[in-house]
Amino acid sequence: MSAWRFQSGLWERCAGVSLEDRGFRYGMSVFETVAIHRGRAVFLEPHLERLARATNSMGWGRVAVPGIPEEAAAAEPAGVVRIYITAGVGSPWDPFCGSAYALFEECEVGTEFPAVRAASSAAPYFPRPGGWKTGNYWQNVDALEQARHRGVGDVLLFAPSGHLVCASMANVFLEIDGAWKTPARDSGARDGVVRAWVKGRLPVEDALLSADDVARCSACFLTNSRVGVRAVSEIDGRPLQSDVSELQRLYRKLVL
Question: Which domain covers residue 174, as residue numbers?
Fold first, then answer.
């Protein structure tokens, strides 16, 4: 993994985030994950725009990052760059004085990931403010651990209200009575860039979805920057119509 810090208008190599930074101490940071595929940053501008909106909603103002490190953007083979904006050194209530960091991690991006088996989580999920991705990611990691213990690839997470929010690290789409639906932002769902791309290709309704909706869906798929579009083959042991190959083909052709 390689790391950079943005300061004085430049990205400079660094060892990592200071232990004194509130991003480390309290999880006071927001981030976006940018896929790097064939030496190109995928959906870079929409990611940076969401990052600025996230810092603004946190009360930090629109913290603008003009891009990502050139070395990371041109990286081969594929991987992801996570851009973090941290609160900086201080007490929890001190004003924002942070920095932007970029972390590159080599991994598969946009390949034909196999369909995943999923299960519903019984543990309440508490969405982050505004649905933004923050450095306090323990719940999401714990959700993946739940999935492993249950012998499935992912779990679906529900807010205390009972509304479906997301999978452990992905947005969710359900086909119900022949119509595609995805958790509304009001539920705490993330405004993911691949989610937005899908909504530009399919007639999708934002809706408040319950466990009953999940139980009667006929198909499901997940989206995030790393996997793109990934089919779900079953939920809670119930087989689904997992063929979203045409949407996956379009994503690879038009995006990657």
Answer: 116-255
